[in-house]
Design brief:
The chain is α+β, with helices and mostly antiparallel strands and 272 residues long. Among the domains are: 114 residues, Immunoglobulin-like; 33 residues. Helix content is 36%, strand content 31%. Helix 1 packs antiparallel against helix 3. It comes from Saimiri boliviensis boliviensis (Bolivian squirrel monkey).
Length: 272
C-alpha cells in the first residue's frame, strides 16, 4: 500500500456482497495508510434488530470473536496494511444482514479518528432437481448446449451448472418406461373386458339355443296325433281343422323364433 500524505483515512467498502450458501465469502474493507496515523482498533458489527452487535474486535491484545456462532468460521485480514476485510466460512441463511466495518486510528497529535462503513451481505441458496434450478433471487430456464468436446449438455440460460448427457438419457428412459407400462396395463384391461363380453355372448347363445330345441320338442310331443284326432272326431263329432291349424301356427312361430335366435348367435360369434 502507498502511504498517503495529509488528509484523513478513507474506508473502501462495497454496498453489498453475495456469498453462496454453505460456502465462503470475503467482505472487503480497506483503506490507504496515512503517514502519522496508527491503527489502534478494528471492529466488525452486524445489525441484529434495531442495534448493531459487535462480532469481532482487534485491539492491542489481539483478535477477539464476540459471538459464539462465529467461532471457528470468522477471520479478519491482518497481513497487508490497510486491509481489514472480513472472511466468513460455511455461510448460513441467517448470516444475511448489514455488516459494519469500523476502524480507529491515533493521529500524530495523540487524538483518535474513527471511520465506519456499512455493507449488505446476501446469501444465495441453490436447489437443483431434474432439467431446472431455483435460487433465492432468480429462476432461470435450462437450455441445450454443446461443450468443447462435442458432448450435448443441458445448461441454464444464465450462469450455472450443466447436466451431463447420461443423466438426460436416464430421465428420458424412465419416462418412456412409465408410458409403455401404463399403455400395456390399459391394453390388458381392455382385452380382458372384450373376452368377458364374448364369453357372456357365447353362454347366452348356447342357453337360448338349448331353450329353443326343448320348447320345440315339448310342443311336438304334446301336439295332436292322428289316433287322437280320430278318437275326437268319432266321440265328439268335431272337425280336425282347428287342431291342425293351431299346430301349424305354433310350429310356424317356433321356426321363426328359432331362426331369429340362430341369427343372433351368429352375430355374437362374429363380434367375438
Amino acid at each position: 500500500w502507498k502511504i498517503l500524505m495529509g488528509g484523513l483515512p478513507i474506508l473502501e467498502v462495497p454496498e453489498n456482497i453475495t456469498g453462496p450458501w454453505k460456502g465462503d465469502v470475503t467482505i472487503p474493507c480497506t483503506y490507504g495508510p496515512l503517514e502519522g496515523y496508527t491503527q489502534v482498533l478494528v471492529k466488525w458489527l452486524v445489525h441484529r434488530g434495531s442495534y448493531p452487535v459487535t462480532i469481532f474486535l482487534r485491539d492491542s491484545s489481539g483478535d477477539h470473536i464476540q459471538q459464539a456462532k462465529y467461532q471457528g468460521r470468522l477471520h479478519v485480514s491482518h497481513k497487508v496494511p490497510g486491509d481489514v476485510s472480513l472472511q466468513l466460512s460455511t455461510l448460513e441463511m441467517d448470516d444475511r444482514s448489514h455488516y459494519m466495518c469500523e476502524v480507529t486510528w491515533q493521529t500524530p497529535d495523540g487524538n483518535q479518528v474513527v471511520r465506519d462503513k456499512i455493507t449488505e451481505l446476501r446469501v444465495q441458496k441453490r436447489e437443483s432437481l431434474w432439467g431446472y434450478e431455483t435460487t433465492s433471487t432468480v429462476k432461470q430456464p435450462w437450455d441445450w448446449t454443446t461443450d468443447m468436446d462435442g458432448y450435448l449438455r443441458m445448461t441454464r440460460a444464465g450462469p450455472g451448472k450443466s447436466m451431463p448427457i447420461f443423466a438426460i438419457i436416464l430421465i428420458i428412459s424412465l419416462c418412456c418406461m412409465v408410458v409403455f407400462t401404463m399403455a400395456y396395463i390399459m391394453l390388458c384391461r381392455k382385452t380382458s373386458q372384450q373376452e368377458h363380453v364374448c364369453e357372456a355372448a357365447r353362454v347366452h347363445a348356447r342357453e337360448t339355443n338349448d331353450s329353443g330345441e326343448t320348447t320345440r320338442v315339448a310342443i311336438f310331443s304334446s301336439g295332436c296325433s292322428s289316433d287322437e284326432l280320430t278318437s275326437q272326431n268319432l266321440g265328439n263329432n268335431y272337425s280336425d281343422q282347428p287342431c291342425i291349424g293351431q299346430e301349424y301356427q305354433i310350429i310356424t312361430q317356433i321356426n321363426g323364433d328359432y331362426t331369429q335366435l340362430l341369427h343372433t348367435a351368429a352375430r355374437s360369434k362374429s363380434v367375438c
